[in-house]
Write a structure and sequence with these properties.
Elements lengths: L1 H16 L7 H17 L4 H15 L6 H12 L7
Helix pairs in contact: 1-2, 1-4, 2-3, 3-4
Pfam families: DUF5955 (PF19380)
InterPro entries: DUF5955 (IPR045999)
């Protein structure tokens, strides 16, 4: 959980400092806020983590400056394993 919290925090800071506006920035900010809240409230649901990750990646995926921090979030989400079916 600590790794996810750290990765989300770093990406949120870099996104906030990024000077360019892009159409889906608000979606990324909202999903990062949701992930941050999940790290505080306990063990999050893996499907919800993955959904948020997909939305964030789709929102900021074309902003190459944020790619390293996005990869950190993805790696942290992957630590939770596959969703149960």
């Amino acid at each position: 959980m600590a790794e996810l919290r750290t990765a989300v925090s770093r990406l949120r800071r870099e996104l906030a400092a990024h000077p360019a506006e892009f159409p889906d920035r608000g979606i990324a900010e909202d999903e990062l806020a949701a992930l941050a809240a999940m790290t505080v409230s306990g063990i999050p649901e893996v499907p919800r983590l993955r959904r948020s990750l997909l939305l964030i990646a789709g929102s900021i995926g074309s902003v190459s400056a944020l790619a390293p921090r996005l990869q950190e979030v993805r790696s942290a989400v992957d630590l939770f394993g596959e969703p149960r079916r």
